[in-house]
Design brief:
Blueprint (H helix, E strand, L loop, with lengths): L1 H41 L5 H6 L11 H4 L13 H7 L14 H38 L3 H41 L4 H4 L7
Helix pairs in contact: 5-6
C-alpha cells in the first residue's frame, strides 16, 4: 500500500510538472511571436540614396525592387568588392557583356582562376616527387628509428596530397563556374580564352 501511495504521488508530481512545463512553453511561444511582430513593425527598408547618407560602411542594406534596376552594373552578385566593381567598369569604348562587365574584367578574372589551377597542379607534382624521394630514403635506411621518422614524413605528405586534390578540384570547379557565368552574361568567346587580347 505504501508503495502504491509513493508511486501515485510521484505520478501526480510529474503530471503537475508537465502541465507547468507545457504552460511555460506556450508562454515562450507567445512572447517570441510578439517579439517578431514588433521587429517587423520597426524594420525599415533603406534605399541606395538613403544608404549614401550613412557613409561607406560595410553593413548590408535591403534594396527595393524599384531601386535594384538603378544598381551599378557588375555589382549584382553578392560579395562583389569595390575593386571588382571598379575593374568591371569599362574604360573608353571597350565592349561589355549584358551585365556591363568589359572584356578586361573577364580576361583578368579568368587569368587569376587559371593561375590558381596551374599553381595547384604544380604543387601536386612537387608533392608526388617528395613522396617518391621519401619512399626511396625509407627503403635505403637500415635504422628502424630513422625509418619511423621518414614514415611520419611520408604520411604527412600523403595528407598534403589529399588537401591539394581537394583544393585543385575546387579551383577547377570555380573556373568552370566562371566560364559558364561569362557565357550566360554574353561575354564574347574571344574574351574567355587564355591568349592575350589584341592591342
Amino acid at each position: 500500500m505504501r508503495k502504491l501511495i509513493v508511486v501515485l504521488s510521484a505520478f501526480f508530481a510529474l503530471s503537475c510538472a508537465g502541465a507547468a512545463y507545457s504552460q511555460s512553453l506556450a508562454d515562450l511561444a507567445r512572447k517570441e511571436k510578439e517579439r517578431r511582430e514588433q521587429i517587423k513593425s520597426e524594420s525599415k527598408v533603406i534605399t541606395n540614396k538613403e544608404a549614401a547618407k550613412f557613409g561607406t560602411g560595410t553593413g548590408s542594406t535591403t534594396i527595393r525592387a524599384a531601386d535594384a534596376s538603378a544598381q551599378k552594373p557588375g555589382s549584382e552578385k553578392e560579395g562583389t568588392t569595390d575593386a571588382q566593381a571598379k575593374a568591371a567598369k569599362p574604360e573608353s569604348d571597350e565592349p561589355t557583356d549584358f551585365q556591363g562587365r568589359p572584356e578586361s574584367y573577364w580576361r583578368q578574372t579568368l587569368a587569376d582562376a587559371r593561375k590558381k589551377v596551374k599553381e595547384l597542379e604544380n604543387e601536386a607534382n612537387v608533392i608526388i616527387l617528395k613522396i617518391n624521394d621519401l619512399q626511396n630514403q625509407f627503403y635505403r635506411e637500415a635504422d628502424g628509428f630513422k625509418q619511423q621518422a621518414i614514415q611520419r614524413d611520408i604520411n604527412k605528405s600523403f595528407y598534403e596530397q589529399d588537401l591539394n586534390k581537394e583544393k585543385l578540384a575546387a579551383a577547377k570547379s570555380d573556373l568552370d563556374d566562371l566560364l559558364k557565368e561569362a557565357r550566360k552574361s554574353g561575354a564574347l568567346p574571344g574574351w574567355l580564352d587564355d591568349r592575350p587580347s589584341r592591342p
